Amino acid sequence: MNNVSTIALHKPTDAALRQFIAEQHALPFTYEGVGATADEAAIPAGYAVDRMSIALGRGEAAFTAAKQGLQAWQQFQLGWCEAWPRTTPIRHDETVAVVARSMGTWWTNAARIVYVIDEANRFGFAYGTLPGHVEMGEELFLLERDPASGETSYSILAFSRPRHPLAKLGRPMVRRLQQRFRDDSAAAMQRWIKQQA
C-alpha cells in the first residue's frame, strides 16, 4: 500500500493522512536528479519541464507576506487541492501529503522537502515525489525580490513524468491538471497578498 498514491471516493480523514505520511516519510525519492530544480541544467532527460512566474507586489511588506504565505502552504489552498498538514514546517526532510480531487475521486500523494532557500531576497523550497505519488519528479516554489525595484515574484519550476498506471493512461488530463495547479497556485498567492495588505 505504501508504494502507490491512494485513490478514494471520499476525502481522506486526518488519521488516514497521518498514517500515510508516517508510512512515506522514510521511503526513497522516486526520480533521478534529486535537487535538480536548484540548477535547471541538471534536470534529467525524459521529464516534462514546467515553469510559471508572476509578480506579487513591491516592497518589504509584500515579500514578508509572500514568505508567510509559502510557510502556511497558501499556494496549495485551492479548494480542489491542498497540502496536509498546513502546519508542516518548511525545512529539509519534512514530508507532506498533497490531496487533490479530480473526476469525482480523491488522490493522495506524498512528497518530501529536498532543500530550502532562505536568503535576504529569496525564499522557497523544493519537494520531491515519494512512492505514494502518481508522478515522479520535483517542484520548486520560489519567491524572489528584485533589490532594485523591490518587486516580489512567485515562481514554480517543476519536472515530472507519470508513475502510476492511471497517470500514464490519462497523461493529457494529468498535464491539464498540472497547468491548472500552476494557474490556481499563482492566483492563491495573489489573493493572499491582497488579504495581507
Automatic annotation (TrEMBL):
Organism: Lacipirellula parvula
DUF1990 domain residues: 30-187
Name under which the protein is recorded: DUF1990 domain-containing protein
One Pfam family, short name: DUF1990
Superkingdom in the source lineage: Bacteria
